[in-house]
Design a protein that fits this description.
two-stranded antiparallel sheet
């Protein structure tokens, strides 16, 4: 496993990180989830990403239980705030950031997180209020650094221009061979301002593993067949997308990689990406994904892959 510095922070995170959306506390039973976390540590994965809204606190509670006997300095822990936790609890107001951070810390069983992220931008709260609350969170010691997920470039720039507030060190966008929107504005802006990308869905929710064949039902036991985990995949399971993905397999084979490893290596080719978040329901899935770290691929193969998927992105 290789590691990259997270923006302008002092954190060094594994190129492959462990996510918990739709898996821990929700779609994967506890015993298998614990085995996945154990495998992550065995593989050298040190970065674990979660959010308060994942399972309405269930993912954080699971991680609090499974991490409690591990040295706190043996992993980098990140969580998020924004989405509704109740009929009245949502957003990035001063009160919500303070309330939700304290609740996350209780569930996680720790006195601080390494990275606290705004899960989306909150147009209903003044940006100044949000940044002041995040700054207090850092200066109180409850989080070491701050980040954001899926913020518009103009709002990122506005936050960077503020004086006397803590600066963001991370951005968490969706990014993959099938979704390259961050390249237009977010990545260039972040690269110029000491902010790294921690990308989610680098495998397009498993579609870029090649396991979904065009015209065939999804294999049993996959995310697409899960009531808890498969509800966000309709766009990705369209026949033209699946046909294009199948055409990537010979390129991955030429690189000596599985298709999943090839897709992760493509994401990691971008210097501004610090880590690619993967979810896993089985330890062997995580082991395969982790092997993408440090993979060396002929840029011509990546260029051909980009050409193949260009029409279906």
């Amino acid at each position: 496993m290789r590691y990259r510095r997270l923006g302008s922070s002092e954190l060094h995170v594994s190129e492959i990180s462990l996510g918990s959306w739709l898996t821990f506390g929700v779609g994967v039973e506890a015993g298998r989830s614990r085995a996945v976390v154990d495998e992550a540590f065995a593989l050298g994965i040190n970065f674990i990403d979660t959010a308060n809204v994942y399972g309405r606190g269930a993912a954080e509670e699971f991680l609090g239980a499974v991490l409690k006997d591990r040295p706190r300095d043996s992993y980098v822990l990140a969580t998020k705030v924004f989405f509704p936790m109740s009929a009245t609890d949502r957003g990035l107001s001063r009160a919500q950031i303070e309330k939700q951070l304290d609740a996350s810390l209780r569930r996680l069983g720790t006195d601080h997180v390494d990275l606290y992220q705004c899960h989306r931008y909150d147009p209903e709260t003044p940006l100044e209020e949000t940044m002041e609350a995040l700054t207090r969170a850092v200066r109180s010691g409850k989080t070491r650094y701050i980040g954001f997920s899926e913020w518009p470039a103009d709002r990122i720039a506005a936050a960077l221009e503020m004086a006397d507030v803590e600066k963001f060190v991370s951005s968490q966008p969706q990014y993959s061979l099938l979704w390259r929107q961050p390249e237009e504005a977010v990545i260039p802006l972040c690269a110029a301002n000491g902010i790294s990308q921690i990308v989610w869905s680098p495998l397009a929710q498993g579609v870029l593993t090649g396991k979904y064949a065009p015209g065939a039902p999804p294999p049993e036991g996959t995310r697409a067949t899960s009531e808890e985990m498969g509800g966000f995949m309709d766009r990705l399971l369209q026949t033209p997308v699946l046909e294009a993905v199948q055409r990537l397999k010979p390129l991955a084979a030429e690189a000596g990689l599985s298709l999943a490893q090839f897709a992760l290596a493509w994401v990691l080719r971008e210097p501004n990406v610090a880590s690619a978040i993967v979810g896993a329901s089985r330890p062997e899935q995580l082991a395969e994904n982790a092997a993408a770290s440090g993979a060396e691929v002929d840029p011509a193969l990546f260029a051909e892959a980009e050409r193949i998927v260009a029409a279906v992105r």
